[in-house]
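Renewal narrative, Specific Aim 1. Our central claim is that a sequence can be written position by position from structural information alone. The example that follows is taken directly from our test logs and has not been curated for this report. It begins with the structure tokens describing the chain, in the order in which they were read.
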């Protein structure tokens, strides 16, 4: 007998049929003699709908109240799933984040899990119950309900798996695993048998929608093997684990991120300290800056461009406008008409010419590159948003079909 954590995303529990489908998967696992802890997200678009409802009432509502609102989505889905499991005749209990022992920071809407104290979960498992836990939420030390940021249920699942030393952590979703590109976009995309934490982390961060990047970070830290698989098609998924005997591939995937914006500060004095001061302001707001490009100084001035998540544009503008004025820079330009396309692969570490091959694919497709960033295992380019899908297809073809 082993302890298995199974996580189901919003699309997997979107309606009554889907909820019963999940109940079936869970109870089948339980019937094989395993202890099962299930983590679920809110049904379908519930979280988006709740956010919209809040916006309607007060677009400037405090983050505490926003958390209180969206946490309701998961409360609904755990109760419904538990009811379905009861109906199938199995013992079950549903638990909210705080009941399941999720202690988090008090950074509402993007709280960090401090620890999971799974005493209650253990007690329920000892009573031979299936335990259904609300993903995405926890409680701060002030006893306030918190949420972990969008897509946070993956992290909830991995955190439980780590805290309870689970034997397996399965992340069920609406695709069959991790693909070399989005299969809805690229017909020849291949399902990967396995992928390393580092590659998965890059892919998740760079726009592959299949796993939340913080969950991968945590899985790596605690060495939790993950399986990403479909809740609708029963087939082996993709294993995310420490790099060992992986499929030998130059790159493991092409990712697209259209939720990105380019910020350019034009005419920054070409002297020490300006980049530091500018980015300190942005990072003080907890905003992740990605690709950074600085032009060579000319007439004592230079331009600095960088990318941020598209939904952070207003915050970035707010925190930089005064500064840009004070230092006498010429302009602060913002474009959301951009997309970031990336290739990721551990094979890059030992092979030359990988970036060139990507640029060649873009050249063949006559797509212009605005910015480039590289790391040991990834190359990202910023391009026009309208070219994004074509770029993914062209790059995928170059690496996987030639
Ligand atoms: N329901 C939350 C969201 O939509 C958490 C999740 O799905 O993981 O972001
Ligand atoms: Mg969701």
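The sequence written for that structure reads:
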């Amino acid at each position: 007998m082993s302890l298995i954590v199974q996580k189901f995303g919003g699309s997997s529990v979107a309606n009554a049929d889907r909820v019963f489908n999940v109940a079936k998967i869970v109870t089948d696992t339980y019937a094989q003699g395993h202890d099962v802890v299930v983590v679920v997200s809110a049904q379908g678009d519930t979280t988006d709908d709740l956010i919209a409802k809040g916006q309607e009432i007060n677009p400037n509502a405090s983050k505490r109240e926003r958390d209180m609102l969206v946490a309701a989505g998961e409360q609904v889905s755990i109760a419904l799933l538990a009811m379905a499991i009861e109906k199938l005749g199995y013992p079950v209990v549903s638990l909210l984040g705080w009941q399941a022992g999720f202690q988090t920071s008090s950074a509402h809407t993007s709280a960090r899990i401090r620890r999971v104290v799974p005493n209650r979960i253990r007690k329920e498992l000892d009573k031979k119950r299936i335990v259904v836990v609300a993903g995405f939420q926890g409680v701060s030390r002030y006893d306030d309900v918190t949420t972990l940021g969008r897509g946070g249920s993956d992290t909830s699942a991995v955190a439980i798996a780590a805290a309870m030393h689970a034997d397996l952590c399965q992340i069920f979703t609406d695709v069959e695993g991790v693909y070399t590109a989005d299969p809805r976009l690229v017909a020849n995309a291949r399902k990967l048998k396995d992928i390393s934490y580092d590659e998965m982390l890059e892919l998740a961060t760079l726009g592959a929608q299949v796993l939340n990047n913080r969950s991968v970070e945590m899985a790596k830290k605690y060495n939790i093997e993950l399986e990403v698989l479909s809740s609708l098609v029963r087939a082996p998924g993709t294993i995310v684990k420490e790099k060992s005997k992986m499929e030998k591939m130059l790159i493991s995937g092409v990712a697209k991120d259209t939720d990105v914006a380019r910020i350019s500060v034009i005419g920054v004095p070409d002297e020490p300290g300006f980049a530091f001061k500018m980015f300190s302001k942005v990072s003080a707001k907890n905003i992740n800056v990605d690709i950074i490009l600085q032009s060579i100084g000319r007439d004592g001035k230079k331009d600095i461009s960088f990318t941020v998540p598209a939904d952070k544009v207003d915050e970035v503008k707010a925190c930089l406008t005064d500064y840009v004025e004070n230092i006498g820079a010429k302009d602060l330009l913002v474009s959301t008409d951009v997309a970031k396309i990336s290739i990721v692969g551990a094979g890059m570490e030992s092979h030359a010419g990988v970036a060139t091959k990507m640029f060649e694919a873009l050249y063949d497709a006559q797509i212009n590159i605005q910015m480039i960033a590289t790391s040991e295992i990834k190359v990202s380019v910023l391009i026009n948003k309208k070219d994004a899908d074509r770029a993914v297809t062209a790059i995928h073809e170059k690496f996987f079909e030639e």
